[in-house]
Amino acid sequence: MNGFTGHRLFRRVEHAAALLLALLWMAPLLYAVWAAIHPPEYAIHFDLLAPISLENFQVAWNRAPFARYFLNTFILVTTILAAQFVLCTLAAYAFARFEFPGSGIAFALVLLQLMIMPEVLIVENYKTMSRLGLVDTISGIGLPYMASAFGIFLLRQTFKTVPKDLEDAARLEGCGPLQVLWKVYVPLARPTYVAYGLVSISYHWNNFLWPLVITNSVTTRPLTVGLAIFGAPESGVDWSIISAATLLAVAPLLLAFLLFQRQFVQSFMRAGIK
Amino acid sequence: MSSVPKISQRYVVGWLLLMPAAVLLAMFTHYPAVATLAESFFSSGSAIRPSAFVGLDNYRLMLDDEVFWKVLANNVWFAVGTIPVSIGLAILMAVWVNSRMPLQGFVRMCYFTPTVLPMIAVANIWLFFYTPEIGLIDQISGAFGFGSHNWLGDPDTVLGCIIVLAIWKEAGFFMIFYLAALQAMSPELEEAAQLEGASRWYFFRRVTFPLLMPTTLFVLINAVINSFKLVDQLFILTKGGPDNASSLLLYYIYEVAFSFLDQSYASTLTVVLLAILAVIAICQFVFLDKRIHYQ
Fold it and tell me: Is ipTM strictly over 0.85?
């Protein structure tokens, strides 16, 4: 009687609980949407008949250089991703297929970055950047992240699953190491690139502490830093407008997530189990 | 075999491939870690006084610094408050999303959404929830006849508020790892248990949960690291206040380095953070290595 399929009622209650938790998890976002699309006086009281307007978005957009912040974030995220793809592919190939002396120690040193992320070393990295003259530049934000231990690890695992015969065949046709990498390994690792790319984009779109430390002008600040300045209590902006600005800042990533939800979840999963 | 490069040539190619990444890693991970340690033995230089070797003075200062102990204790409480609940919720979410249920895709999306949103943005929204009187929480509790409360202004509740936000942000992320593990599990186990007439709870307790143990260890390690890394919300919600009641170690490092401009002391504090991370790394090595080995 305590059977798996029995207890219909219990299952119903469970489903209801799961759904309730889901709505609770969505509530902050739903609230932000509510506040953003209604006039400010409705921000704190709910009325289904409240008039809908997009004015808050317009006010927010005009009150801070969001267009510039968007551009900065876009440049930042794409530069980091491009550099990560190149650097991590090369390093992963070395670890997967070249048993060079010291590769064990080198790999351990690479993995160290999984523990000691650039966020933790803001003090010294700031000094390095000022020595390099890269304070307040977009490359200054991106550089510490470009050689990513996570990417190297993920790609190495994938490259190791590629059958050696394929490589040998390409070599017999006269391909050098880089050609083999480009023609054999990279195409076969496509799902890993997609997975890693999505994880990297969402990480750097959302990253805050290091960009805050290293930037101090409109022309370099990414969205997160711009939003933090915009929403600061001292700035005296009201809730509806902050909500609108918040939604603007998350919109591209959120839309991409909602459209490619399955892809996102699977990518994070793929990246997680490796 | 003439087309296969000679051994020594392979060594060179291997190192060349690794070189670009290795240079950047050395510059922004290994060098700064060592430099932080070195810096912690020097005093902060100023225009009139150059920095000088002071031995363990910075560490003595740190041991006498009440704020340091306060943020360290906060960080421990933050971890203790966040990790078990978010892991528990993550398992629950994963089991739910993995079982057949109506609106499965929608529910999974809801759980996962906080993960893709920037902490800075969601902190803006949560700030409104916590605002006294007009905030959502006070409005709801007011409707039930409770008085208003300054959630973020009260040293007794502020850390709890930060913890709740962190749980909300992280549970869906951890769910993903459990979901992957559950999907890799053989469905035959469940069928067999069904035939035996085992209850779902019994099956979960005796079969699913033990099989999820490696995942739990992995998530646990990540959760502990995150609890020392996740400070973005403080910039929006509390700035570490009131009276450092919600400040965490990394936030304090930021303040010391970039508001109080004391680089040496910030380095000393960073050494503590690095030491904590090293201990976590050793735990990971000891507990997780077996699992990786057999994979």
Answer: yes
